[in-house]
């Protein structure tokens, strides 16, 4: 009966190990640095930010076009089956003096082709737009950098979640190995008549629980790996192998934790500062509506009047050129205070942005203070949990020895095994908390991109 109970357990364990080995052979090895660099190049949000940056140049070109000459061509062909008639006084009637005459003026066909040119000579809104062009490009550059930093934070956190789950699997595997040794001893005692069936059953249940826990962790690893692949922009179906936990051993070192930091160096604040500059230019563009505008206009056209279809008929006496050059001056006088209302709206937008900047600075300071507290506490917790694991292992070794000598009951052995498992899980959880706090600390100092080096 006991062999039947253990057979599916070990079969599942062997299959899991084989599956992991196959993935290790076929999957793509992925370090944290590689994951971060891959994300910056492939994740959707990062690629969209680069498209926004590319589009910013097109918007700048659009603004600059307003300062360049605007040239357009035109053409017109009219046929008048019934010409407009005008009445001439009878005094001009040579054949019948005193009798008014109806005279048709014009020709049946009227063709006209021409070209028009307009050049802004003075338009304050155009000048303001040209000044804002450079700031627009800088804004989108900073926004692209901010998006990359957000992607890096997201990927780094997700990466360590995978790492922690893999470390927990390693701990469970160690516990399964230890419990299996205890099972072999108890089973041998039972078969020799020195043990109890209930003890064998207890250890069997312990092994079954550990195997179920391992399977849950395997499922969690798969989910976290899929989540990581999604965050970095990798196809979810592509197999990857996260670097072994042993190669990511956490080294607690002396951290540089100044009392405060300069929030103005953070990308979030720099983006808001550039956004404020753009809003200032937007306000100036509205104020420019009070200024007069002056533009140069010129046009040239060729016109042909004839009673027959003019195209292809060649030049005739009714064909002539027309050209004109002029200046257009527009002076705004009163528009119902519409401009003033738009200026007031722009002022409100500026005030709202400044409130957002104050809130963001406070949020950055809050994150930094919390990160400092968390990193200090997690260093202490890590050290304590490491000691707890060592003590739990020592207690388990002593309890196992006493049990083999008949000096301790099985419940003490199982309790010691559970205590070790709990200490190991707490240690792994402390590793994750430390890493997350470390990422937040690096973020608060504006140094997330150093993770890619």
TrEMBL record:
Ranges in coiled-coil conformation: 200-227, 343-402
Primary location: membrane
Domain of life of the organism encoding this protein: Bacteria
Compartmental location: Cell outer membrane
Keywords: Cell outer membrane, Coiled coil, Membrane, Signal, Transmembrane, Transmembrane beta strand, Transport
Family: Belongs to the outer membrane factor (OMF) (TC 1.B.17) family.
PANTHER family per record: OUTER MEMBRANE PROTEIN TOLC
Name this polypeptide is given: TolC family protein
């Amino acid at each position: 009966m006991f062999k039947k109970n253990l057979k599916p357990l070990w079969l599942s364990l062997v299959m899991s190990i084989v599956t992991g080995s196959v993935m290790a052979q076929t999957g793509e090895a992925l370090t944290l640095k590689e994951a971060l660099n891959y994300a910056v190049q492939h994740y959707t949000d990062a690629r969209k930010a680069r498209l926004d940056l590319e589009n910013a140049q097109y918007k700048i070109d659009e603004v600059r076009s307003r300062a360049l000459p605007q040239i357009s061509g035109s053409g017109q062909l009219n046929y008048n089956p019934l010409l407009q008639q005008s009445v001439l006084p009878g005094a001009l009637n040579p054949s019948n003096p005193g009798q008014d005459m109806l005279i048709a003026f014009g020709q049946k066909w009227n063709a006209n082709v021409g070209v028009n040119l307009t050049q802004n000579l003075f338009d304050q809104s155009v000048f303001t737009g040209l000044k804002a062009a450079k700031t627009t490009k800088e804004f989108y550059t900073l926004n692209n950098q901010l998006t990359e930093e957000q992607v890096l934070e997201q990927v780094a956190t997700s990466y360590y979640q995978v790492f922690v789950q893999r470390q927990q699997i390693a701990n469970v595997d160690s516990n399964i190995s230890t419990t299996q040794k205890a099972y072999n001893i108890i089973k041998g005692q039972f078969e020799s008549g020195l043990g109890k069936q209930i003890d064998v059953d207890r250890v069997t249940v312990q092994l079954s629980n550990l195997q179920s826990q391992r399977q849950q962790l395997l499922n969690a690893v798969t989910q976290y790996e899929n989540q990581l692949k999604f965050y970095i922009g990798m196809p979810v179906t592509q197999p990857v192998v996260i670097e072994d936990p042993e190669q990511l051993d956490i080294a607690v070192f002396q951290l540089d934790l100044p009392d405060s930091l300069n929030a103005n160096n953070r990308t979030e604040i720099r983006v808001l500062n550039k956004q404020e500059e753009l809003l200032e230019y937007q306000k100036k563009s509205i104020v420019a509506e009070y200024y007069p505008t002056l533009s140069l206009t010129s046009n040239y056209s060729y016109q042909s009047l004839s009673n027959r279809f003019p195209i292809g008929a060649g030049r005739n006496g009714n064909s002539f050129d027309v050209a004109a050059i002029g200046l257009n001056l527009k002076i705004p006088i009163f528009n119902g205070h519409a401009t003033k209302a738009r200026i007031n709206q722009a002022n409100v937008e500026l005030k709202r942005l400044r409130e957002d900047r104050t809130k963001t600075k406070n949020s950055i300071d809050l994150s930094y203070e919390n990160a400092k507290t968390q990193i200090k506490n997690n260093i202490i917790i890590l050290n304590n949990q490491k000691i707890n694991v060592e003590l739990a292992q020592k207690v388990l070794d002593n309890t196992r020895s006493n049990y083999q000598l008949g000096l301790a009951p099985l419940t003490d052995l199982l309790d010691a095994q559970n205590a070790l498992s709990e200490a190991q899980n707490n240690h792994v959880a402390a590793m994750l908390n430390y890493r997350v706090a470390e990422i937040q600390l690096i973020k608060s100092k504006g140094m997330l991109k150093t993770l890619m080096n």
